[in-house]
Amino acid sequence: MPSPWFSFSALLADHPVALWLAALAAGAALCCLLMLLLRLTRARLDRLAQPAGQGVAGAASRILLRTSWVVLALASLLLAADLVGAPLPGRAGPGHLWFVLIALQLALWLDRGIEVGLTHAVAARGRAGSITATLLSFLLRALVWVIVLLAMLDNVGVNITALVASLGIGGVAVALAVQTILSDLFASISIGLDKPFEAGDFIVFGAVAGSIEHVGLKTTRIRSLGGEQIVCSNTELLKQTIQNYKRMQQRRIVFSIRVTYRTPVEQVAAIPALIRAQIEQQPDTRFDRAHLARLGESALEFEAVYYVMSADYNRYMDLQQAIYLGVMRDLHAAGIALALPESILHLARRAAREEEAAA
After folding, report:
1. Are the C-beta atoms of residues 285 and 309 closer than 8 Å to each other?
2. Whole-angstrom distance, CA of residue 99 vs CA of residue 105
3. What is the DSSP letter of 200?
4. pLDDT at 329
């Protein structure tokens, strides 16, 4: 016994308008069903996302939100037309139309996936990564849409060989014309991904020392110690050896003290312990060593090494001052004098020559 559906299709075979009306009705029903399934799927993913909107489930839900109802409606209509046997206008076959719809929807999902992924990366890295994320988002989205557009044109029978060749030649010409700008743009991406510094970091390179104010697409702005703003090309900045003091976990300090040779040996032997005691009294410090390092030309030279467990320069200067003052007090209390730069000149008088000169 033949199926009622096929009997109905055969009955309307000579009435394309009636077939398309039936296809529209079936497509509308199918589209509503697909939209309901999509909403239920997103609701399930939202319940699985912990915390809300985060994780793989949250990302998948946000990507599905980019599903185009126009593409969904056209796909439903195309499927319904194929089921009822409605004739397609023009010479485009259903295979080409299916490819265009699927490619377009995949491009929309990829576009949203890039946005979701880069948004998560910016949230993890902080505000400093927003510039890089914006540039990467633009480049990746442009790449996706160019590939999808070329694929759709090729699928519908357009010869894209000449178009691809023209795009290649044009791309080379543009790259040569703006190579300096492109170099800075890719340097900005490198800074965003590698993170040699961020806004707020204090860096030193060459003769420049200052705090990073802004990392842009082409330049980086630095506020120097003198107060002026220094604008540096990203490409030139990455060519330098950069010292990032903001990321310093501890600061190694070396200082020396000079005492006179008139100091007794017993007191000389006690000076390293005296220096160590002063260093260990200060908070946020770690003593390393203190020794009689050199027998200088005019003084006994002691060398001490310790670490300040902070990157704050002002904090380091406060601790260094406290250590110096404490050592000076202890030396004064012990009767040990600090050596001053001096030189002794011995003059020999020759009495005979003086007598001859007098005669």
Report:
1. yes
2. 10
3. T
4. 94
Q: Which residue has the tokens 């003084």?
A: 299
Structure confidence at residue 322 (pLDDT): 95
Residue with tokens 């309901």: 36
Per-residue pLDDT at 328? 94
Can you give the pTM of this predicted structure? 0.53
Instruction: Give the pLDDT confidence score for residue 290 in this predicted structure.
Output: 95
Chain centroid offset of residue 3 CA: 63
In what side-by-side order are the strands of the sheet with 229-233?
229-233, 219-224, 208-215, 202-205, 243-244
- Helices 55-64 and 16-48 meet at what angle, rounded to 10? 160
For the chain, which ranges sit under pLDDT 70?
A: 1-18, 20, 50-54, 84-94, 121-132, 163-164, 167, 170-179, 342-359
Q: What is the CATH number of domain 159-247?
A: 2.30.30.60
Query: What is the dotted CATH code of the domain comprising 251-334?
Result: 3.30.70.100
| Per-residue pLDDT, 2 | 47
As a whole number of angstroms, the distance between CA 156 and CA 44 comes to: 37
Q: In this structure, which amino acid lies at residue 299?
A: A
Delimit the domains of the chain by residue range. 16-46+55-157, 159-247, 251-334
**Phi–psi pair at 297, nearest 5 degrees:** -65, -35
Structure tokens at 105: 């929807």
CB 224: neighbour CB atoms within 10 A? 12
Give CA–CA dist 293/181, Å, rounded: 54
- The Cα-based distances of 285 to 208, 228, 249, 303, 328 in angstroms read 29, 33, 12, 17, 19
CB 290, CB 303: distance < 8 Å: yes
Q: Token digits for 47?
A: 């319940």
Structure-block tokens of residue 69: 């109802």
8 Å CB contact between 203 and 247: no
The rounded radius of gyration (Å) of the Cα atoms in the chain is 40
pLDDT attached to residue 6? 47
